Amino acid sequence: ENTAARQYRLGVLEGDGIGPEIVPASVLVVDAAVAAVGAPAIEWHDLPLGRAAIDEHGAAVPAATLRALAELDGWLLGPHDSVSYPEPHRSQLNPSGTIRKHFGLYANIRPAKAINDEDAVVPGTDLVIVRENTQGFYADRSTYKGSGEFMPTPDVAIALGIITRDAVQRIARSAFELARRRNRRVTIVHKANVLKLTTGLFRDVCREVAADYPDVEVDDFHIDAMTVHLVRRADAFDVVVTENMFGDILSDLAGEIAGSLGIAPSINASDDRAMSQAAHGSAPDIAGRDIANPTAMILSNAMLLDWLGGRYGDPALCQAAALIDQAVTDTVRAGTKTRDMGGTAGTGEFAEAVAATIKRL
Ligand code: ATP
Ligand code: MG
C-alpha cells in the first residue's frame, strides 16, 4: 500500500444554536484520534455559514464558502436554525440542502448503533442505512425540473418520483464498499410489488451491482416488511441500501430502535467529498450554556474519517475512526455524560474526556 501519509484538509462550518459549542468540541476529538494513530494532523479551515454568515456576508451559505469547500477533502457541518432566518433566507433551500445539492452529495449514510443496551429496543443493533439522497419523491432533491410535485388544479396534487440506473449504481456501490469494511451483508429495501418501475429498477440495479461483490451476502425486502423485521430483529442487519423517502423513514426508525436517535451521526458523500452532520437540530433552547451533547457530531466526524480512509486507502484513518467510536462508548459507560444522557458533564468536558480516553486506548 501507499506509505506516503496524506495530509487531509477539512472545513469547519459551525452553524447556529449549539453549533459553535459542539463543532469545536468535536474537532478536538478528531485531533486526538489522528495523533493517536500517528497520522499527519488535519489541516482545518474555518468557514462562515448560517445566521452569522447572513449578518456578515448576506447569505447563509456565502459563495466564498462554497468556493473554499471545493478545495477541501471534506467538512464538518454544524446544525442550522434556518426557520429563524430573516426573509428571503428563510424561504430559500436550507444550508445543508444547498451544500448537498451544490456538491452532489448523493449518499446519506446513517448508522444505528446501540451504545447502551438498556436504552435500545433491540440490544446489539449495529447497522447502517445507506440512503439515496437525490431522487425518489422528495421534491427539493428531485432531478425532474427541480421539483417532484405539482397541482394541475387546486384540488389535485401529483408527486413524481424518479429513479435512474446511474444513481442506483453509485449508491449501490457505496453500500457494497461499506459492507466490505463491515460485516459483508447488504439488504436492499424497495416496494417492487407496487412501485414496480421505480423501486423495481432500484432493486434490479442493486442486484446487478451485487454481482461485482460475490464476497458480500445480499437479500432484499419490501419497505413494509422491513419495518417489521427492524422492530423484531434489527440486530440481524448490517448495511441497508434504499431510495430517498424509504431511507428517511427507516433511518429514524432504526435510530430509535438502537436507542440513540438523540446521538445519531451521519455523513453525506459523493465519490470524492464527504460532510459530517449530526442528525439532530440546532437546539436553540439550550445554546450557549455548555450543556449540549457533542456525541452525534463526534461520531459523525468518525464516519468522515472512516470514509476518507476508505476513499484514499488509508487504514490509519479508519483506525482513528474506530478509536473515536470505542472512546465514546467507554466514556459513556464510565459515567461521563452530558445532561441529556443523565449526567452532569459540560460540552467541552465530555469531549475532553473522550480525547483523554483515546490517549489511553
Ligand atoms: P431541526 O428541525 O433543526 O432538526 P428539531 O425541531 O428536530 O430541529 P432539535 O434542534 O434537534 O429540534 O432539538 C430537539 C430537542 O432535542 C430540543 O429540546 C433540544 O434541546 C434537544 N437536543 C438536540 N440536540 C441536542 C444535543 N446535541 N444535546 C442536547 N440536547 C439536544
Ligand atoms: Mg429535527
From TrEMBL:
Keyword Oxidoreductase among record annotations: yes
Gene3D superfamilies: Isopropylmalate Dehydrogenase
Alphabetized SMART domains for the sequence: Iso_dh
Pfam name, any one: Iso_dh
Keyword Oxidoreductase: yes
Keywords: Oxidoreductase
Domain annotation Isopropylmalate dehydrogenase-like: ranges: 9-354
Family of this protein: Belongs to the isocitrate and isopropylmalate dehydrogenases family.
Name assigned to this protein: Isocitrate/isopropylmalate dehydrogenase family protein
Species: Actinomadura napierensis
Native organism taxonomy: Bacteria, Bacillati, Actinomycetota, Actinomycetes, Streptosporangiales
